């Protein structure tokens, strides 16, 4: 392997995720991306997740979904000269922590917006997360085959609510039944849409030039409307600027329909052309650049495969620098141990395969036997930890009630392992032997109870408990911290990672406590 090959592999990589509100079209878009990536022949074959997949009650459904999503969590495919890694973010809001952490492992994101609905709450939240690292964002306004809102209003809304400038790359001609295609402002070319071609890649007719009479012949009166509208658009919107895009201040916008498989290729072209190749990542000792030859990576997600045939846990690691080769040794920094990795996995078209080698930007799957935690760093021996892989303060709390008191050891073990995975968070109050489970979404409690029974043979139920929210507590002044621990003893707990946590019975109590202890830090997120 020469240096130039290494640099070349890095330059080819595009690692991104889709951010969207449920139902905006993420799944449909993913399917079409795989179609262009030659990973499937006909769209509609990837998965038949039913329309009730957002349902919260049905266990088996959930298990199925978990089974499906483990194999589709990461998809690698070639497009043009690039190798694209698409990281799936779980659809259900209850797993949003996973989503946040997945976004720490990408170099760019694709925002899919339902053109009829505009900017929706979850998109806003996810954009906030992307902001933390100024992740470059590409945008796709979906469902042009429906009657959507006025495109100019949509861009206005994105600009004002999400606080990012919009640079339309394509502009739609008509909408709904009258959707005729898009005009590319930078190629001065119109691409015509044909209905009923959503399942395969089709030849699209292109017409060069805005004043081309062929355009009038093809789209009729809409050609005149397009010319007028473009005058307005050019005045009101922003021109694409690479620097602004890379710094997360401007998003190139594409219009199309994922269902009709139109505009998806324009977007992919934009992705390979503009989205950054693997970027550097900050550690507690230094910045790691992708081109550093020493291997480094961090774990952003752990998932248990619900397939009963191989009930294994997979840790998803993003390679940050260097080259992974099958059988190589790496240092598990938190444990201070060297491990030989010979059975790592890669994910092509949702199938796991044994991995021979991987480059910066790639995601590799490691078999986890309980030793790997979210946020763990692996290196070639150097001692450092990647930053910015947060745990979020839970909003919901329950006390665990064990049915069979003799099983408290198993309960401890199960609940600790599940909290390592990020499936839930666990708190042990200082003042008694309760076990309190904290979650961001209510579905997590059911998942935990189900998995405790299924995987650890422990049956439990939950009690309500008067905890409104939690904050991780830090204080540089050791004496003050001791003081604080004494005074607030009854509201303090240790979490699954061994960190001191304040469990506030009410929001008001939290505010008062924070006022009373101005030098104690109460944090909503915990980093590794
Ligand atoms: P997700 O929840 O974001 O993954 O959304 P899905 O991809 O499952 O799409 C939600 C619904 O919108 C499904 O019924 C899709 O068939 C539909 N849908 C997705 N894209 C389009 C589109 O471009 N046009 C129309 N009319 N429907 C779409």
Structure notes:
- The chain is globular and about 80 Å long.
- Strand 30 and strand 31 form a beta hairpin.
- An 8-stranded antiparallel β-sheet has the order 28-25-27-26-30-31-29-32. The chain has a 7-stranded mixed β-sheet with strand order 2-3-1-4-5-11-6, with helices on both faces. A 6-stranded antiparallel β-sheet has the order 18-17-23-14-15-22.
- The relative contact order is 0.11.
- 29% of the residues lie in helices and 29% in strands.
- It is of the alpha+beta class.
- The protein has 3 domains: 218 residues, P-loop containing nucleotide triphosphate hydrolases (Rossmann fold, 3-Layer(aba) Sandwich), CATH 3.40.50; 99 residues, P-loop containing nucleotide triphosphate hydrolases (Rossmann fold, 3-Layer(aba) Sandwich); 135 residues, Alpha-Beta Plaits (2-Layer Sandwich), CATH 3.30.70.
- It contains 14 helices and 33 strands.
- The structure holds guanosine-5'-diphosphate (GDP).
- Keywords: Cytoplasm, GTP-binding, Nucleotide-binding, Protein biosynthesis.
């Amino acid at each position: 392997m020469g240096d130039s090959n290494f640099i070349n592999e890095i330059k080819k990589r595009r690692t991104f995720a889709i951010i969207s509100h449920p139902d905006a079209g993420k799944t449909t878009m993913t399917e079409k991306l795989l179609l262009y990536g030659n990973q499937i022949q006909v769209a509609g074959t990837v998965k038949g997740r039913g329309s009730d997949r957002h349902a919260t009650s049905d266990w088996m459904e959930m298990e199925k979904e978990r089974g499906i999503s483990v194999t589709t969590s990461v998809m690698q495919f070639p497009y043009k000269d690039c190798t694209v890694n698409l990281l799936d973010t779980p659809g259900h809001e209850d797993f949003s922590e996973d989503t946040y952490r997945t976004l720490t492992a990408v170099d760019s994101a694709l925002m899919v917006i339902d053109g009829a609905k505009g900017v929706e709450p979850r998109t806003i939240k996810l954009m906030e997360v992307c902001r933390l690292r100024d992740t470059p964002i590409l945008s796709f306004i979906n469902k042009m085959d429906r009657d959507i809102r006025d495109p100019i209003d949509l861009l206005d809304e994105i600009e004002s609510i999400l606080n990012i400038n919009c640079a339309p790359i394509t502009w739609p001609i008509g909408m709904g039944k009258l959707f005729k295609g898009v005009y590319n402002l930078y190629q001065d070319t119109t691409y015509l849409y044909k209905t009923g071609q959503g399942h395969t890649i089709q030849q699209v007719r292109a017409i060069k030039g805005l004043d081309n009479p062929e355009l009038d012949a093809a789209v009729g009166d809409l050609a005149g409307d397009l010319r007028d509208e473009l005058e307005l658009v050019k005045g009101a919107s922003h021109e694409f600027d690479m620097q602004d895009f890379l710094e997360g201040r401007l998003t190139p916008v594409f219009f199309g329909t994922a269902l009709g498989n139109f505009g998806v290729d324009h977007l992919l072209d934009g992705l390979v052309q503009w989205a950054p190749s693997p970027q550097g990542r900050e550690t507690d000792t230094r910045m790691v650049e992708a081109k550093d030859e020493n291997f480094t990576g961090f774990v952003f997600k752990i998932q248990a495969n619900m397939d009963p045939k191989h009930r294994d846990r997979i840790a998803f690691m993003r390679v940050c620098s260097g080259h992974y080769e099958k059988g190589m040794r790496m240092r598990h920094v938190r444990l201070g141990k060297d491990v030989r990795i010979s059975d790592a996995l890669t994910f092509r078209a949702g199938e796991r395969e044994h991995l021979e080698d991987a480059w910066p930007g790639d995601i590799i799957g490691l078999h986890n036997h309980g030793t790997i935690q979210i946020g763990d760093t692996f290196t070639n021996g150097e001692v450092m930890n990647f930053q910015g892989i947060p745990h979020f303060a839970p909003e919901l709390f329950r006390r665990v009630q064990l049915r069979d008191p003799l099983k408290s050891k198993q309960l401890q073990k199960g609940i600790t392992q599940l909290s390592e995975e990020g499936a839930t968070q666990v708190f042990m109050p200082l003042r008694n032997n309760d076990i309190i489970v904290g979650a961001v979404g209510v579905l997590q409690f059911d998942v935990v109870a189900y998995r405790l029974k299924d995987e650890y043979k422990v049956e439990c139920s939950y009690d309500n408990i008067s905890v409104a929210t939690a904050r991780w507590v830090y204080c540089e002044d050791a004496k003050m911290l001791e003081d604080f621990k004494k005074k607030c003893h009854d509201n303090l707990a240790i979490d699954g990672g061994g960190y001191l946590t304040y469990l506030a019975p009410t929001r008001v109590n939290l505010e008062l406590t924070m006022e009373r202890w101005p030098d104690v830090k109460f944090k909503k997120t915990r980093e590794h």
